[in-house]
Design goal:
Helix 1 links the parallel strand 1 and strand 2. Helix 7 crosses helix 10 and helix 8 crosses helix 9. It contains 10 helices and 6 strands. By secondary structure, it is an alpha/beta fold. It has 2 domains: 135 residues, Rossmann fold (3-Layer(aba) Sandwich); 66 residues, Winged helix-like DNA-binding domain superfamily/Winged helix DNA-binding domain (Arc Repressor Mutant, subunit A). Helix content is 50%, strand content 13%. Strands 2-1-3-4-5-6 form a 6-stranded parallel β-sheet, sandwiched between helices.
Length: 219
């Protein structure tokens, strides 16, 4: 049998933590590896779990917490525990905040009114290194961006391939390896692709790729 995905739940509200933990623990393929009350608590627990070889696959992270907020914690996590995927779970629905955390390395963004199925889907997508964005946020981003998918025709074949790879959640290094090019060249292709589509982030590009049918939406 496949080992279940593991998740550390980080939120300063005990009721929220326990509710999510209770939900994931009834799933066959996901289990809670613990709960943390703030960013510093999360980093301390991750350090302990790393020492015992039990780092979680995913951290479900609130943004607004005392002592250490989610953004600060995420920066530290990306440096100290790069293998751990971060899914943000927050009550803030601003696209600017979404872009910020995605640029910091988050692979998922959920609003706190998301249903249990969305939470589970985001955790599974994160484990596959895929981007998962709350349905309401995805619609908002799409409205803001207008219809950049129509601009895909302006892309070269290589840039279209790069868009597809970005939509799959690939990093510049992974794109370079896939296309047998240098990481610098991959970075240039990504930048050109974003510029032609009038996009400001890889998150937006991933949405365009999904909307254009270049990649399948997260399950």
């Amino acid at each position: 049998m496949t080992e279940p995905l593991t998740v550390l739940i980080v939120d300063d509200h005990a009721v929220a933590r326990r509710g999510i933990s209770a939900y994931v623990d009834v799933l066959d393929d996901i289990e809670s590896r613990g709960e943390a009350a703030d960013g510093q608590d999360a980093l301390d627990q991750l350090a302990q779990l790393e020492r015992s070889g039990r780092l979680p696959d995913v951290v479900l992270l609130d943004l607004v917490m005392p002592r250490m907020d989610g953004v600060t914690a995420m920066k530290a996590m990306r440096q100290q525990f790069p293998s751990v995927k971060v899914v943000v779970l927050t009550s803030f629905g601003e696209t600017e905040r979404l872009n910020t955390v995605m640029q910091l390395g988050a692979v998922g963004y959920l609003l706190k009114d998301a249903g249990p199925l969305e939470v589970a889907s985001a955790i599974r997508a994160a484990a596959r290194n895929e981007v998962f964005i709350d349905t309401a946020m995805a619609k908002k981003l799409t409205q803001i961006m207008g219809s950049p998918a129509s601009g895909i025709s302006s892309l070269t074949q290589r840039e279209r391939t790069v868009l597809t790879l970005v939509g799959e959640g690939r990093s510049n290094r992974e794109i370079a390896k896939e296309l047998y090019i240098s990481e610098r060249t991959a970075r240039t292709h990504v930048s050109n692709m974003l510029g032609k589509l009038n996009l400001s982030s890889r998150t937006q590009a991933a949405l365009v790729a999904v909307n254009a049918g270049l990649v399948a939406p997260p399950a």
